[in-house]
Amino acid sequence: MKVKDIGEFGLIDRITKKPKDKDILIGIGDDAAVFKTRKGLQVLTTDCLVEGDHFRREWFSSAQIGMKTIEVNVSDIAAMGAIPKYVLVSMALPNNIDVEFVDGLYEGMWKTCEKYNIEIIGGNMTHSEKIIISITLTGEVDNKNLCLRSGAKPGDFIFVSDHLGNGRAGLRLFQEGIDGFEKVRKHYLEPKAQLKTALKISPFVNSMIDVSDGLAPEIKHICNQSKCGAIIYKDKVPISDEVRAAAEKLGEDEYDYALFGGEDFELVYTVSKENLEKVNGFLVGEITKNKKISLFSNGKESAIEEKGYDHFF
Amino acid sequence: MKVKDIGEFGLIDRITKKPKDKDILIGIGDDAAVFKTRKGLQVLTTDCLVEGDHFRREWFSSAQIGMKTIEVNVSDIAAMGAIPKYVLVSMALPNNIDVEFVDGLYEGMWKTCEKYNIEIIGGNMTHSEKIIISITLTGEVDNKNLCLRSGAKPGDFIFVSDHLGNGRAGLRLFQEGIDGFEKVRKHYLEPKAQLKTALKISPFVNSMIDVSDGLAPEIKHICNQSKCGAIIYKDKVPISDEVRAAAEKLGEDEYDYALFGGEDFELVYTVSKENLEKVNGFLVGEITKNKKISLFSNGKESAIEEKGYDHFF
To answer: In the CATH scheme, what is the code of domain B147-303?
Structure first.
């Protein structure tokens, strides 16, 4: 069912520009997109961003919302070691929305897609009271580069690609109306998928996931799927000075941001001793045979707290 | 970004049951689904159903909502002449929703997927005030069976697969709180994709589309893409006696339902004279070289009205 083809929203020229990729037979304008496939592996992910839950119009520009919707999906594809290819955009918009807003939204999506060489091949538009954007992204990967959550092995070292805590710290700054901390705020508004890093390390890691829910839940996902446990070296978790300062200002714990905050979109990956020299990143823990997940800090080991994850607690 | 894996909603056993299809390497439980591809053509469609816009909980059982979300996407894949394969389900649900409701929703999806031999390979869940279900469905098709909107040729005959008007008549009955007309109501609550018909006729049609917006807009889509026009024989448009009776009761025009109502999910296809004997269905018009679309009734030709389409006018 097409409700309204996205081309019908006054943006038809931009949307229906001829796909560059010659494998795309039918982009926008039919009941479904059609593209040529080769023998190989395809990855497919979908995500739904809802106004109020994943973004607020007071905080994000429409272009930033558009950018974020693509980045978070690229992050999932990257975490598989795969290369993003085609995207479908399904939107529900309030009837009273400005054309300028929609224009900005597409602009943000287009630019981000262009950056990653992704083609928009389809989608649809309907209305709803709040903005809802559902993205479907395809990707391609060779079997030898495929990175699963289930591949971690006892003895693996756990790495993160970069500093954590920006996502939650940024959210909290906006929620509490605190100015300053520009880098943290920008990180929250404009998260970036770590595709380059993912593609570089994918042949050498045993498992990989992206940080959407926080380091602890991501490691838990890996451990559950790999049937193992982990020790997280709390003091080694990389947190920037600005995130630390923001946490102090907010009277909160920066390690809560990093461990349970989410929306950082950095990569978490586990690497065997033999491949240690082939990857970069911050070493933050170890995979264990013992199935529990614990936090190691100041010479003491403690069970990790079970904290739920919610975008707007 | 996974917000909550769908398995985490207490339904993990049902959702994560091992895929039957050996081409699926990774179903639910990683950042993205992974499946093997062959050399060929893949089709991909997505659709977002929003509570209040596409269904109401007072009218639909949760199983019916689940069924409808799958059927409307299968209908799009069928209209391409393709075979549906894999589905991703992305849901946003209110926090106060009953587990029984979600259970019914999945039940409806599962049963419908099973009917079409479709495998659920991924998805995610988040929350929102209203129920939002976004479906992504993949399909496969041989080049020779691919049916596009753009293939219609002057002289083609236009067919519909079955009676029209049920979708809109059913909606109007619910909106006005009118009882009876059980068949029409059921048609509205439980639309069925015409996959079998589509696969049977796909080698013999020049163009095809499914009726989600109403016969007239669908024919317009075909004409726009095929750079031609059409004459619709209004009196030949098949409308059941029950839809006629419902329209009379509502004081409305049954042809408005069929031509502009939508949500019938029947197929519209155009066939050259040579292939006429190879397809079934109801002949409702002709493709013309002249680019206008007109309605022929009682020996008179008139320009077709431009009516907008909106699920809940």
So the answer is: 3.90.650.10
